[in-house]
Amino acid sequence: MFPSWPMRFHHQQQGSSRSGGESTDSGSGVNTISSKAEANIEPESPISRKAASSSSDHYHFQHHQMDQLAVSNGGAGPSSSSHHHIQQQNQSADKPPNEKRKGISSEKPLDAKTLRRLAQNREAARKSRLRKKVQAYVQQLETSRIKLSQLEQELQRARQQGLFLGGCSGAGGNLSSAAAMFDMEYARWLEDDLRHMSELRAGLHAHLSDSDLRITVDRYISHYDEIFRLKGVTAKSDVFHLITGVWATPAERCFLWMGGFRPSELIKMLISQLDPLTEQQVMGIYSLQHSSQQAEEALSQGLDQLQQSLVDTIAGGPVIDGMQQMAVALGKLANLEGFVRQADNLRQQTLHQLRRILTVRQAARCFLVIGEYYGRLRALSSLWASRPRDTLMGDENSCQTTTDLQMVQPSQSHFTNF
Amino acid sequence: MYQTESWGSPYVPASGRNGVGSYAGGGDPFERIEQLAAESAVVIFSISSCCMCHAIKRLFCGMGVNPTVYELDQAGDPIAGKEMEMALMRLIGASSAAALPVVFVGGKLVGAMDRVMASHINGTLVPLLKDAGALWL
Q1: Residue numbers in A near B124 (CB within 8 A)
Q2: For the region Disordered, what residue ranges are annotated (chain A) (predicted)?
Q3: CA–centroid distance for A279 within its chain
């Protein structure tokens, strides 16, 4: 190829001024080399021609540099290019080499307008490539975002089902063994709870005798005694696990008081559902509500005092006393167990008192109501976690929802909003 | 620091500043306890820095009762104070160190926080207080 070059090149040098209509092969020497290379690789197309022209310009520029090289080296490679270059330069003196690439009558000199157009073409091509890259990247980001929100939802669901035991404690560390043990026992307790409730339901429907029903009711009370005993044991090792309510579902946790339900709130819920009650029973229930409220208030104030005392201990003081400060604070923190124990004690006493005030049948119904209530609260948590949330659509969907809500309400304003 | 004065004196402190010196010292701690419990309608043996003791005080104050409080850590004789604490622990049958607070109503032992709360919930505390003259209708 090399020997044939100069001839061809020479031929073109002479004929290029006239042979504008030829194919790209007939372009200038510079173009020939590049176009030859590209003709072998790519199909002829305007894009490749443009690319070629841009690369040829580049080549043209490079030539200046290589020229210097050629002068210094005098080697075969550089020499050809320098030879090339000289002829190229001769060419450029005569006519625009790039014109040949266009395949049009290219006898006009390379004027400013053409140069600008070429530059614009190059710019457009570059922007197009950049845009494609950006689009690909954005696509990647979007996909990752969807994956992330899916993972978050899965995690939430798994957590609620108590599957994710290894390392999602509220304190941020791994679940302590006491906490893990409690979670396991609690899960079993929940299963037992369902069983007890169906026993109660069956007993009520079957119209068992009071003495028979009493056995079922007392068994349910023991079932609750069991969870309080369990919590007492856990409080000794990991009171934070109990008090932060990691073991409970989100909705339950939201209304948690000192590591469990608030007795006065439970009674408030029950009052409307425990019909019919004798006057004495009504007084008993209201008295129970009142005394549990007083006890709750006292315990809450005690806990506030503990928090204040703790804050005072670790807040100030010179650094020298640091370790002693911490020791004192630890001692104070240990009192937390006492408060959770007393709160559970209050809960337990409240349930026992309910049992005393009510008849056997009333008590059976009462505990069924309690069990169903917490069952629904737990179900609410699950539903909440798995509700559809379109994070991609964002505003669109929220508007959609608002519109749907408006359609449900038949009002004048409904129309004005549209 | 945990101060008794900060409660705004809804209760009657024992004679002397926070009962300091007047009740502790010399003699059998059990006898001392019995003696002090008989002197007032509602008697709470407490530790000034204890938060559960604060809770029990708030409980009685919330009910409109004026308990007599003895802060055992502020006794004139600290050893006697400690002896009384140990004696109280024996009385309520506490195995661990958390004995206080301990409540007496009408001279009779009610118990620690859990017993007090249980008796309030099951409705026996209020009649007891009324009988002792600590609570009026």
Answers
A1: none
A2: 1-115
A3: 55
